[in-house]
Amino acid sequence: MKRVYERIALIGAGMIGCSLVQALRRAGAARVFAGYDLSPSVSEKARSLGIVDVVATSVADAVREAELVILAVPVRATAAVCEALAPVLRTEDVIVTDVGSTKVEVLARVARTLPFPERFVGAHPIAGTERSGPEAADASLFKGRRCLLTPTAGTRADALAEVRSLWEAAGAVVEEMDAALHDRALAYVSHLPHAAAFVLAAAAGEVAAGDDALGRAVAGLSGGGFADTTRIAASDPIMWRDVMLDNARPVLDAIERMDRMLGRLRQAIASGDGDAVARVIEEARSGRAAVIGARRSS
Ligand code: NAP
Q1: Best of 43, 61, 239 to mutate for ligand 1, by most ligand atoms within 8 A of CB?
Q2: Atom in ligand 1 nearest the alpha carbon of residue 134
Q3: Rounded to an integer, what distance in angstroms lies between the CA atom of residue 120 and that of residue 174?
């Protein structure tokens, strides 16, 4: 860590924000970590777990004297947080960054509200779990995982360098990416898998809730396949509602592509065309290898 901050403020003391603060605390990145959350019990929990040193009572209270501010709230909540930040961010050298899963809309909110958007650096760690809250924080969450930074043409080079160094201190491998490309790509590798897991789990759950022989058989019968493909369906509804709405166009494009695939599979099964069924599965196998293989070699 190149710089030791006097005070870092965390807005949103949930799983990702607390994991980052834990990692930064380990790296000795700041003398004081202050935390603010919409629910006072959540920030108090973060303090009792030794994640933040100080519980703030408002956004303004949290960022007072902070040199770096981390926004770790559901992406649509960045609107309210930026509005609360705008009148209190008077010092020109404060850096603001975020961890949000979408970038285009977050950057647009920042440009609309913050007095010096050039000192905001958008960030998205490609690491996470289906769990929420400070109890789920893990200081090693970002170790060896990618963190994508989405600077704009106006982003100040020193702010970008500091946020890069912050994530490297947390153990992440940092890359820069255009915000729109980020959102379109993440629609396929993160948002679509969540959408698919949500509807898959909801459909099977609807059957399992039935008070009949099928419902009773489905409930409790699942093996590894169901658990593996639906683990992320246990994720926080507010966090994911915000991602789906913020990134609506790319997510809808991805859902439409999946719909077409599902239609081909449905048609192949309905017509008893075994070759066509096998072709869809072959494409699935090579598609999975292409996506995961490309990630490993990049
Ligand atoms: P989380 O555990 O639910 O934490 C979010 C926290 O933000 C909650 O404690 C919530 O408070 C608080 N909050 C909501 N609105 C707020 C406001 N206006 N002011 C202050 N605090 C507010 O969620 P998370 O998983 O850490 O997600 C946080 C961010 O990380 C999101 O932007 C998400 O897109 C991004 N992210 C998540 C993952 C993942 O795997 N989960 C991965 C990468 C990035 P309440 O509990 O009172 O609502």
Answers
A1: 239
A2: 2
A3: 16
Check if the beta carbon of residue 137 is closer than 8 Å to that of residue 129: no
Contact 161/225 with Cβ under 8 angstroms?
Answer: no
Protein residue with least CA distance to atom 9, ligand 1: 14
Report the separation in Å between the CA atom of 115 and the middle of ligand 1, taken as the mean of its atom positions: 24
The C-alpha atoms of residue 146 and residue 289 are separated, in whole angstroms, by 19
- pLDDT tens track for 13-26: 999 999 999 999 99
In this predicted structure, the answer to whether residue 190 has a pLDDT above a threshold of 60 is yes
Cα 38 to averaged position of ligand 1 atoms, centre (Å): 10
Question: Whole-prediction pTM value?
Answer: 0.95
* Ligand 1 centroid, distance to 4 Cα (angstroms): 25
Q: How far is the CA of 266 from the centre of ligand 1 (A)?
A: 37
* Ligand 1 centre distance from Cα of residue 17 (Å): 7
Q: Which residue has the tokens 């959540």?
A: 42
Q: Are 148 and 182 in contact (CB under 8 A)?
A: yes
- How many CB atoms within 10 Å of residue 154? 11
pLDDT at 295: 57
Check pLDDT > 60 for residue 160.
Answer: yes
DSSP secondary structure letter of residue 191: I
The CA–CA distances, whole Å, from 171 to 105, 109, 110, 132, 291 equal 27, 28, 27, 21, 23
Segment 104-133 mean pLDDT: 96
Helices (H) and strands (E) in the chain, counts: 13, 9
d(CA 144, CA 141): 9
- Arithmetic mean of pLDDT, 104-120: 96
Residues whose CB is less than 8 angstroms from the CB of residue 195 and which lie 6 or more positions away in sequence, other chains included: 244, 251, 254, 255, 258
Q: Which two tokens stand for residue 291?
A: 């996506």
Atom of ligand 1 nearest to the CA of 243: 34
pLDDT digits (tens, 9 = 90+) for 276-296: 999 999 999 999 999 998 654
